[in-house]
Amino acid sequence: GSIACVVALVMLATPLAAQDRGRGAAPAAAPAPPPMTLTIAAFPDGGQIPVKYSQAAPGAAPGEGTSPAITWANVPPGTRSFFLHMHDMDVSRNKTTDDQAHWVVWNIPGTSTGLPEGQPRGAKLPDGSYQFSATGQVYRGPGAPANGPMHHYTFELYALDTTLDVQPAADAFETRTKVMQAIQGHILGKAVYGGLFRRPPYGVLVERRR
User: Fold this and answer.
1) Average pLDDT over residues 63-82
2) What is residue 31's predicted lDDT score, i.e. its pLDDT?
3) R_g of the chain, CA atoms, integer Å
4) Is the pLDDT reported for residue 175 higher than 90?
5) Neighbouring residues of 185: CB distance < 8 A, sequence distance ≥ 6
6) What are the residue ranges of helices labelled H in the chain?
């Protein structure tokens, strides 16, 4: 009796085993693509932003500064344009949820791998993208006061599957709102980089100028 049961089980299992061999092993899932990255060589992620890139830099025009070189990698396939958003998370504008707009740059070409240091003033940058900030159509460097805590400045880069049909509005905040609305449903990837800053004491700045 027990031998017969074993033989029956073997006969039942054989077709199933043969069927499995015919199908072959399931293909391994493709590895997930690496996430998009954003890098600013002038300071480490989460580190202190050098005075050179701030409003406190010697020779900087009021509310301006030198923009740092920014690079990115691992861009998602199908990217048509980029949107760069630099903002001060520690400033509340007019007692609202709006924080300070330090640099709103949109329609950066999808083939770009970064922005060189020292982008010029003007509604459009050399690559054809638009720019705006609370200062105007120019990069606004960090400017947290010396007598307060470090402020957190965040650089966000969005990879988009479209070029935005957005023109500069009356100011940076209205413009940012329009851009944020326009990118909904078009984001392929996002990368974030952060920095800290507060103005050095006045005496330190004087020493650096000498």
Assistant:
1) 97
2) 83
3) 27
4) yes
5) none
6) 2-23, 172-183, 202-209
Compute the distance between CA of residue 11 and CA of residue 17 in angstroms, rounded to an integer: 10
3-state secondary structure 96-113: CCCCEEEEEEEEEECCCC
Give the Cα separation of 59 and 53 in Å (integer).
11
Q: Residue 102 has what pLDDT?
A: 97
Distance, CA of 180 to chain centre = 13
Contact at 8 Å (CB) between 58 and 204?
Answer: no
Distance in angstroms (rounded) separating the CA atoms of residues 45 and 154: 10
Band of residue 57 on the pLDDT scale cut at 50, 70, 90: very high
**What is the 8-class DSSP label of residue 34?**
P
DSSP for 48-64 reads: EPPGGGSTTSTTPPTT-
148-179 residues labelled b (16+ CB within 10 A) or e (exposed)? eeebbbebebbbbbbbbebebeeebbebbebb
- Condensed to tens digits (0 to 9), the pLDDT of residues 4-13 reads 544 444 444 4
Distances (CA, A) of 202 to 62, 70, 105, 113, 163: 16, 29, 31, 37, 44
Other beta carbons within 10 Å of 74: 13
The predicted pLDDT at position 26 comes to 65
Q: What percent of the chain has pLDDT over 90?
A: 75
